[in-house]
Amino acid sequence: MRAGMDEVFKALADPSRRALLDALNVRNGQTLRELCAGLDMARQSVSKHLAVLEEAGLVATVRRGREKLHYLNAAPVHEIAHRWISRYDRARADALADLKLALEETTMDAPTFVYTTYIRTTPQKLWQALTEPAFTRRYWATEFTTDWSVGSPMAWDNHGVPISDPEQVVLEAEPYSRLSYTWHTITPELAQRFGWDDELLARLSAEARSKVTFTIEETGQVVKLTVVHDGFEAGSRMAEIVAHGWPGVLASLKTLLETGEPLPDDS
Question: What angle do CA 23, 24, 25 make, to 5 degrees?
Fold first, then answer.
């Protein structure tokens, strides 16, 4: 089970562990070998530091064949921000973060969003929350119309905007364990709903379609949910939107399942 905030701060206190997080911030999804090659640390030291970061929830791992890839996990940082940054200060904090990224002008590889959280629920209820409109509309303002069979089309209702496209399909559907589908189409109506200008609409529409995968694992009295959103192009604006918006959506999902009410809408 994920550690508490004390463990998060303890993990962040070590400069070597912060260096590992910085390395993953530059290029997410690295193997142990790649992290060792990029840092002046022995393999054993890197392994120990990664174990601490993973235990604190700051790093999530995903298996790809024989490789174990390491990703920054946004969940603990988002929880800290939600606790201590009020909704009135959050816009200014976001603006400063955006300014820092703009000034750094770091060239990023194709990004991948990975988020791991632990929820006091059952795999069955979590599956319902990911697939049934009665749940999804409450924490996400989104509904799906599909039979959840592999290859079936998905019609979306995203914040009141209906979206149909033959390339919006179910990729994997193993009840209570794994769900994957292609990410949705961007339409002029959706851009109007979110206040996106014509330039952003054109850029998002031109990007390759990405995919999202939910992995559900029962661990004692809680369920581990790992979300991997990948398939983005290098420099993807959609990846930026996902990284900014998904932590709040997933935190609201967790709160809904644990308390019966989603997080309040601060927009």
Answer: 90
